[in-house]
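Tokens as discussed.
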């Protein structure tokens, strides 16, 4: 799952609470966090789930018939418990040949307890028939901060009023599939499936696996049967119903399809066109061919979870659905890559419990990084990785952050955070760096093939890595997966008598572990690089190396694999300028530009001038915003470069920011450029032009905005406000 919601903390609200209530709340919090979240007990194994469903739009009901085949996991048993939330039951029976034997049961609105007709051994399969009605709209949702609704099945505009399309779709993660069919709703269960959906004939359906038959019924409905022949977890079951247009692509003989609202159908290929290349890249890299019968991506209305990697059928929120004009400014390539990588890490092998969510989400986030490296080169990979690092660092304080594999949490939704996503992804990248690509990917292949169609945890990944490399990786996993926090390295350099002395202090909070960190160090002498290796394993250490002269620059951790922070004492603007020009990794360049953005020295102005020509548009934008147009020595060159960006940059966000920057000069010679930008197709560029024109002639800007069509106005108005606030 990809969560696109930002979490904000609002200050200034004073809540008065009695000491008794406050103490009670604290006690409840302690009690919840003290619970050890075990992997769910397997009393039974799901084998096959067959469903026949139809829908009552007026009542928001699902009418279902289910044949669920199970067997005892190990111990013989004469009872069965199923998760089933907010349902009515008409019949529950066991199928014995051609006979149907009614069964006794108890139900508490969340769990269905069934007394079987006899004891069953682990070698015996049996099938339960359930005739039921699911009423998900009547459930009280257990909303969390990331997954904001847990009703499982959603009717969108079921009354068909207004312009909003009528749709039905499901969202099973974490354990909400049991809101629309009885099951053992745990991530360590796997089952094959067959889902027959009876819908109005005008609608399109989508579910897991292959569409094996379609039957038109006499009452104006149609029954579509979707079969999933490989086992997958219940939370990955999905259904979608609505007026969707399908664009069909292919990969290696398998159907790859994109389901969109009719008005977005012409842009399906432009939105999703990289999907087959992604499938090919991941398949070859992992040595495991895309494992499912097809791959579909569908965009639904009012989706609240970002995106969801249902097996063979990913659901996306509306933000992915864009017109050709919108795609000029932005796309959701990272999300598309993230959800696709889940088809291996999450679906093919599933985290055995929510405590082990890192086996799903860390990998999918890591998959984004790798895709950008394949598609955009090392710079693109490093940019993506840097963004993940910053996401994580915003989630920690003084190096203190939760454990990656967490067995104590308030609810499963708490696991969907920057620890499971971002921190976990850069821990994997650091492991790849230490292990080497060949060994690392062979280890991933071993993990996937050994645990195919099963569930896994970090220790199984560790054992795969040990099998491949012959090395004990428990210290690495113990430090990064089963202990909390991250290092903060305070670094000083001193050169004297032909020696460089590096002193490193691990300054993270004293309650946070002391880390063992094998790192590299690059010394630049006369612009020649010399690399050394160090092992940091104490709170304070010094390392000494013989060097012929004082280094011009020292780059600690040049591969930038540290899952933490590095603070170098007395680092100057001149150091950052050298860093930008001579050790130009993405990390070094952005850190130099960020420093220069806050510093007013001549060297910093030169860094920003270099940044205007950076190959990454985000660094060009940072430089545009920060550069000083009043600096006499560089002003002419800066203005010339800004004008070139405003006219010719391939990225509309860079063009837009350059236009706004030029307008801030008040120089009327740029007015024609600004007026012409309002005639462009890009919403970014139009909004920047309008914001710029406002600085010259507010009445003209207002008139120009009013002359635009409604769609363009809707897009550019919020962008105008953003650009107008820039200096």
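Sequence:
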């Amino acid at each position: 799952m990809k969560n696109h919601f930002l979490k904000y903390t609002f200050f200034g609200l004073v809540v008065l609470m009695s000491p008794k209530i406050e103490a009670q709340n604290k006690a409840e919090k302690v009690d919840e966090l003290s619970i050890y979240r075990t992997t769910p007990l397997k009393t039974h194994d799901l084998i096959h789930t067959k469903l026949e469903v139809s829908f009552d739009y007026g009542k928001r009901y699902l009418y279902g018939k289910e044949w669920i085949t199970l067997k005892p996991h190990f111990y013989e048993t004469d009872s069965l418990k199923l998760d089933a939330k907010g349902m009515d039951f008409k019949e529950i029976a066991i199928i014995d040949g051609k006979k149907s034997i009614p069964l006794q049961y108890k139900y508490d609105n969340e769990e269905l307890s069934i007394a079987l007709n006899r004891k069953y051994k682990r070698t015996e399969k049996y099938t339960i028939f359930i005739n039921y009605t699911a009423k998900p709209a009547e459930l009280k949702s257990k909303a969390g901060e990331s997954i904001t609704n847990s009703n499982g099945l959603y009717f969108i505009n079921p009354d068909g009023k207004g312009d909003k399309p009528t749709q039905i779709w499901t969202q099973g993660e974490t354990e909400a599939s049991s809101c629309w069919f009885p099951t053992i709703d745990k991530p360590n269960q796997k089952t094959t499936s067959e889902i027959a959906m009876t819908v109005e004939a005008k609608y399109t359906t989508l579910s897991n696996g292959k569409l094996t038959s379609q039957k038109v019924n006499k009452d104006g409905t149609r029954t579509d049967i979707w079969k999933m022949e490989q086992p997958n977890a219940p939370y990955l079951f999905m259904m979608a119903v609505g007026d969707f247009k399908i664009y069909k692509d292919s990969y290696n003989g398998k159907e790859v399809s994109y389901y969109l609202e009719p008005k977005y159908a012409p842009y399906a290929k432009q939105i999703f066109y990289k999907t087959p290349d992604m499938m090919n890249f991941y398949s070859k890299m992992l040595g495991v061919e895309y494992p499912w019968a097809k791959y579909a991506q569908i965009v639904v209305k009012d989706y609240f979870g970002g995106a969801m990697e249902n097996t063979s059928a990913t659901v996306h929120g509306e933000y992915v659905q864009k017109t050709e004009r919108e795609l000029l400014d932005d796309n959701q390539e990272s999300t598309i890559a993230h959800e696709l990588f889940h088809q291996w890490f999450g679906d093919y092998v599933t985290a055995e419990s929510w405590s082990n969510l890192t086996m799903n989400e860390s990998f999918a986030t890591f998959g984004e990084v790798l895709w950008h490296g394949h598609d955009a080169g090392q710079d693109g990979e490093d940019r993506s990785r840097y963004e993940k690092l910053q996401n994580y660092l915003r989630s920690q304080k003084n190096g203190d952050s939760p454990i990656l594999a967490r067995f104590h949490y308030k609810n499963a939704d708490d696991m969907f955070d920057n620890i499971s996503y971002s921190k976990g992804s850069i821990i994997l990248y650091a492991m790849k760096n230490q292990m080497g690509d060949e060994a690392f990917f062979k280890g991933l292949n071993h993990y996937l093939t050994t645990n195919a169609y099963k569930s896994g945890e970090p220790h199984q990944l560790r054992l795969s890595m040990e099998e491949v490399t012959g090395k004990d990786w428990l210290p690495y996993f113990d430090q990064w997966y089963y202990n909390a926090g991250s290092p903060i390295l305070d670094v000083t350099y001193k050169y004297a008598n032909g020696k460089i002395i590096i002193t490193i202090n691990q300054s993270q909070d004293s309650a946070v572990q002391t880390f063992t960190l094998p790192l590299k160090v690059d010394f630049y002498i006369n612009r020649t690089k010399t690399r050394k290796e160090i092992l940091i394993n104490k709170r304070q250490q010094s390392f000494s190396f013989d060097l012929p002269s004082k280094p011009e620059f020292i780059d600690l951790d040049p591969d930038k694999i540290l899952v933490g922070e590095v603070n170098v004492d007395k680092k100057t603007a001149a150091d950052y300028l050298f860093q930008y020009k001579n050790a130009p990794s993405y990390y070094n360049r952005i850190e130099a530009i960020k420093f220069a953005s806050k510093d007013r020295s001549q060297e910093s102005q030169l860094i920003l001038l270099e940044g205007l020509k950076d190959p990454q548009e985000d660094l060009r934008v940072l430089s545009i915003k920060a550069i000083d147009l009043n600096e006499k020595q560089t002003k002419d060159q800066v203005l010339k470069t800004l004008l070139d960006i405003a006219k010719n940059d391939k990225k509309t966000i860079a063009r837009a920011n350059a236009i706004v920057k030029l307008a801030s000069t008040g120089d009327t010679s740029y007015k024609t450029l600004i007026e012409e930008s309002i005639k462009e197709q890009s919403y970014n560029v139009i909004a920047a032009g309008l914001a710029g024109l406002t600085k010259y002639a507010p009445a003209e800007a207002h008139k120009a905005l009013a002359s635009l069509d409604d769609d363009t106005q809707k897009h550019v108005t919020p962008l105008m406000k953003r650009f107008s606030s820039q200096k």
